[in-house]
Amino acid sequence: MISSVTICSSSKFYDTARRAEDLLRKAGLTVYTPRYDYSEEQVRVGESDKIRLTREFLDKVARSDAVFVIANGGYAGVSVCIEVGYAVGQGKTVVFSEQPTEFALRALVDAVVPVDEIGDEVRRISRVSPAEGSA
């Protein structure tokens, strides 16, 4: 059962990420978020900042049971793809807000739950093992 989740999101979608954060917290989950203050839509993020932020964020993924990916229009940027791959490698559950447009990511999705439909049932989503996914 999921008790903690990390929200993965392009900075383009931080408004949606904040809404998801609120709903996930209301569902009783511990929620880790991106650093909203480093939105690439508003500030320039240099190489050293990006390296530090990526490592900090992967630590959040490691502490959580699952990741919830904000994928407005099915979009997931390079950083989000890295975060999803890391989460899968760590055995975490992967939930997307919309079906990803990238086919390789679709192979890693355990569930698709639109942000407006987040509720208590999100806690019961579990990781699909490769054997289950091919059945």
Main attributes?
single chain, 135 residues, alpha/beta, Rossmann fold, 5-stranded parallel beta sheet, 5 helices
Q: What is the second-level CATH architecture?
A: 3-Layer(aba) Sandwich
Trace the largest sheet across and list its strands. Answer: 2-1-3-4-5
- The helical percent reads 25-40%
Q: What is the element string, with H for helices and E for strands?
A: EHEHEHEHEH
- CATH class type: Alpha Beta
What's the overall average pLDDT, rounded? 90
Rg for CA atoms: 14 Å
- Unreliable spans are none
Integer tally of domains: 1
CATH topology: Rossmann fold
How far apart, in Å, are the first and last alpha carbons?
A: 23 Å
Strand count, sense and barrel status of the largest sheet are: 5 strands, parallel
Q: Name the structural class.
A: alpha/beta
Per DSSP, what share of the residues sits in E-state strands of 2 or more residues?
Answer: 5-15%
State the helix count: 5
Beta-strand segment tally = 5
Shape: globular
What is the oligomeric state here? single chain
Give structural notes.
This protein has a 5-stranded parallel beta sheet, with helices on both faces. The model has no long low-confidence stretch (mean pLDDT 90). It has helices at 14-26, 47-63, 78-89, 103-106, 130-133; strands spanning 4-9, 30-32, 66-70, 93-96, 111-112. Helix 3 (78-89) links the parallel strand 3 and strand 4. It has one domain: Rossmann fold, CATH 3.40.50.450. The chain is α/β, with parallel strands linked by helices and 135 residues long.
